[in-house]
């Protein structure tokens, strides 16, 4: 969501506009957003509907006991222990009616205020949910784009597929490598890796003419296409078992190997 629109919807300016409490500049701002942003127009329409519902909800008859209690309270306030030298005059009926109306107006105003506050909170929650939903959609689209790019690499006619099958030391091992000598990219897909002791792990190595190069660690918990360094003159790729902190080739146990010499 656009930052300006998000800030506008989170502010209280739409409510002020609906109640005709905005300044000239604020009115111009509100009308600009309503005219140019469908989200703003929808939010304004929702507030209008909510205000209409509140107005209808507030138009209820006052219970008889409330007016009765008000009259009793007013009569009690008129009681006095001072001896009157003249005859007491009764409170005019219109004064009582005015007092009752004032109390009723105050109660109704407070109720409307509370409902308006609740509607503001609900409106902010809806706006936040819309913002989060759009963020989730953007993240999902990004993941789909990344997956699409990976599939394009795999389906590239220049990409070559190599399957690692484990030896006696790791019979259930199965991993696939995809190498594109034209684009000079290498990817590996872990399918199954037999479980190892906690202090050991699988490593992938590239065999060159004069040395072995460690290309990284393989982990079954990361079962997705993984980019590995591309080695221009590699003769073979192998998977070995090594101990934590030990990267020396001679100390590792080989469990799978593929030759690249026939494919070059």
What is this structure's SSE topology?
Layout: H1 3-10, H2 13-18, H3 24-36, H4 38-58, H5 64-77, H6 93-155, E1 160-165, E2 174-180, E3 185-192, E4 200-207, E5 212-218, E6 225-228, E7 236-243, E8 253-259
Antiparallel strand pairs: 1-2, 2-3, 3-6, 4-5, 4-7, 7-8
Helix pairs in contact: 3-4, 4-6, 5-6
Textual characterization of the structure:
Strands 1-2-3-6 form a 4-stranded antiparallel sheet, covered by helices on one side. It has helices at residues 3-10, 13-18, 24-36, 38-58, 64-77, 93-155; strands at residues 160-165, 174-180, 185-192, 200-207, 212-218, 225-228, 236-243, 253-259. The radius of gyration is 39 Å and the shape is elongated. It is of the alpha+beta class. It has 2 domains: 3-153, no CATH class; 160-259, Immunoglobulin-like (Sandwich). The protein contains 6 helices and 8 strands.
TL;DR?
With 264 residues, the chain is an alpha+beta fold. It is built from six helices and eight strands, in the order ααααααββββββββ.
Task: Give the tags.
single chain; 264 residues; alpha+beta; four-stranded antiparallel sheet; 8 strands; elongated
**Tally of individual helices:** 6
N-to-C CA distance:
50 Å
Q: How helical, in percent, are the residues?
A: 40-55%
Secondary-structure element order, N to C: HHHHHHEEEEEEEE
Q: Major sheet: size, sense and barrel closure?
A: 4 strands, antiparallel
Structural class label: alpha+beta
Low-pLDDT parts are 80-88
Mean pLDDT: 77
Q: Strand fraction band?
A: 15-25%
What is the total tally of β strands?
8
Shape: elongated
Nearest-angstrom radius of gyration?
39 Å
When the domains are counted, the total is: 2
Strands ordered across the widest β-sheet: 1-2-3-6
């Amino acid at each position: 969501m656009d930052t300006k629109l998000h800030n506008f919807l989170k502010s209280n300016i739409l409510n002020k506009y609906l109640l005709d409490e905005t300044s000239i500049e604020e009115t111009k701002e509100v009308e600009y957003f309503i005219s140019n942003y469908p989200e703003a127009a929808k939010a304004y329409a929702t507030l209008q509907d909510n205000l209409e519902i509140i107005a209808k909800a507030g138009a209820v008859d006052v219970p008889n006991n409330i007016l009765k209690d008000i009259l009793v309270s007013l009569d009690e306030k008129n009681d006095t222990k001072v001896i009157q030298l003249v005859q007491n005059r009764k409170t005019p009926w219109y004064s009582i009616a005015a007092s009752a109306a004032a109390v009723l107006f105050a109660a109704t105003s407070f109720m409307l205020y509370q409902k308006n506050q609740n509607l503001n909170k609900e409106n902010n929650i809806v706006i936040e949910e819309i913002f989060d939903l759009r963020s989730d959609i953007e993240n999902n689209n990004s993941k789909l784009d990344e997956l699409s790019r990976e599939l394009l690499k795999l389906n590239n006619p220049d990409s070559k597929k190599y399957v690692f099958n484990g030896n006696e030391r790791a019979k259930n091992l199965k991993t696939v490598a995809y190498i594109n000598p034209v684009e000079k990219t290498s990817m590996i897909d872990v399918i199954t890796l037999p479980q190892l002791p906690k202090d050991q792990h699988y490593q992938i190595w590239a065999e060159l003419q004069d040395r072995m190069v460690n290309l990284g660690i393989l982990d079954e918990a990361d079962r997705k296409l993984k980019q590995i360094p591309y080695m221009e003159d590699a003769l073979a790729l192998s998977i070995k078992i090594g101990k934590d902190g030990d990267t020396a080739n001679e100390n590792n146990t080989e469990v799978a190997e593929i030759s690249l010499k026939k494919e070059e």
